[in-house]
Amino acid sequence: MKANKPARWAQGLAALALACCALASSASHAAATITIVNANEPGVGFNDPTPALPVGGNTGTTLGQQRLIAFQYAANIWGARLTSDVAVRVDAAFEPLDCDATGAVLGAAGAYEIYADFLNAPRARTWYPSALASKLAGFDVTLGRVPHIFARFNSRLGLFDDCLPGSGFYLGLDRQFGTGIDLVTVLLHEMAHGLGFQTFTDDFSGTQLFGLPSIWDYYLVDNRLNRSWVSLNPAQRAASAVSGNGLSWSGPRVTAAVPAVLAPSSNLNISGEAAGSAARNYAVGDAAFGPPLGTTAVVGQLMPVVDQAFDTGLACTPLSPANAQAVRGNIALVDRGACGFAVKARVVQAAGAIGMIVADNFEGELTGMSGTDPLVTIPSVRITLADGIALRAALQGRSRTRSGVIASLGVDSTRLAGADASRRVLLYTPSFYAPGSTVSHYTTAAKPNQLMEPAINTDLTQAVQPPGDLTLPLLQDIGW
Hints:
Layout: E1 17-18, E2 34-38, H1 63-79, E3 88-95, E4 107-111, E5 114-115, E6 128-129, H2 130-137, E7 149-154, E8 169-170, E9 181-182, H3 183-195, E10 220-222, E11 227-228, H4 234-240, E12 247-249, H5 252-261, E13 264-271, E14 280-283, E15 285-286, E16 298-304, H6 321-327, E17 331-335, H7 341-350, E18 355-359, E19 380-383, H8 385-394, E20 406-416, H9 471-477
Parallel strand pairs: 1-5, 2-3, 3-7, 8-9, 16-17, 17-18, 18-19
Antiparallel strand pairs: 4-7, 5-6, 10-11, 10-12, 13-14, 13-20, 15-19, 16-20
Helix pairs in contact: 1-3, 5-9
């Protein structure tokens, strides 16, 4: 999957429909062993001899060694939190993947084979990824023939001008990635897919593989129909996959952890005598920079930045005196594009704005805003293209310094960010189908950002379990 900044990970799958014979099982140990199988040819990938200085706890002295150390470090994080008598084998390699100067595929991983009706299978006629099937059966259901997880990562990232230059993988283990992309975080995400954070049902057509559901499908609930995926027909499943916020996870471990992990939803309220039909609450995407929204709202008149044609404004360079006068002491409305989100925040902050709202420049699902800048001290949120159009329409009657449209940036304590009305976490079901991302990820509306969202976020902490993250509880729901 190709993606623009912020870079996205891709999740892939090579599924082979196999069942397994019965062999003796044994009790699980308190941890699992995850082994990285180097699939690179000499001189490339894990075997790249390019000299490298040790960094962030990674003691390798070549690029290849550091990649392998980071891989095993991530594998050990998962291994310490899972239980299985069967070592999990990850067939891994670095190789050129799709990328250009503004976007890249970071990596792809998934279960190499899937199994149904194996020894000790908790559900009959149900697909399980081979690593989980092996854990539940008590022996290696692949009989050692093939790996359990297949993983490939971008060997060109940040190293060439045509592959996201300046944003290569950070190979340290300490999250001090600066402008780079934390490889350990990417690996934790992709390994989770291979361990079972994915459905094997076709999420575009809703068709089950050979007529059998995935173990995932028992916990996917269409929250509009209040029915699980296994009880829906293919057309209903396909519709829920592009439903916006229509698909939730009902597993007991995840649901129990949601209130301790997810924060109250961020909210933009528009009011005032000039707001007209725009007066209401708006869903917003949070910024990775600046202060988070809190129970004490930041309130001010909404004033647009107008430095482009058609009454729009990018706020990528210092504001003109007229624009600075308009936003001073108010909340600035700007448009996405031409520069980073944090740059826009610094520009309007320097002009005296007390907050910033960024309106998207294309149709799509609401997401947050990436970027880092410790000097940004005002709150910032993102809204959809449609909501931006509505707000600009309400501002048409403004004067140079007054709009009569009041914006309040705060939180809605009655709702959890990324959860449905029953406090079940939402899955990623954008209104446009996104191959490799749709359904098999958590929603981008979650706060704090979750490891298993479709896009990597700079505030991820390498956590995989509560109170910071909901990935481990989901794997436990399906049988780990």
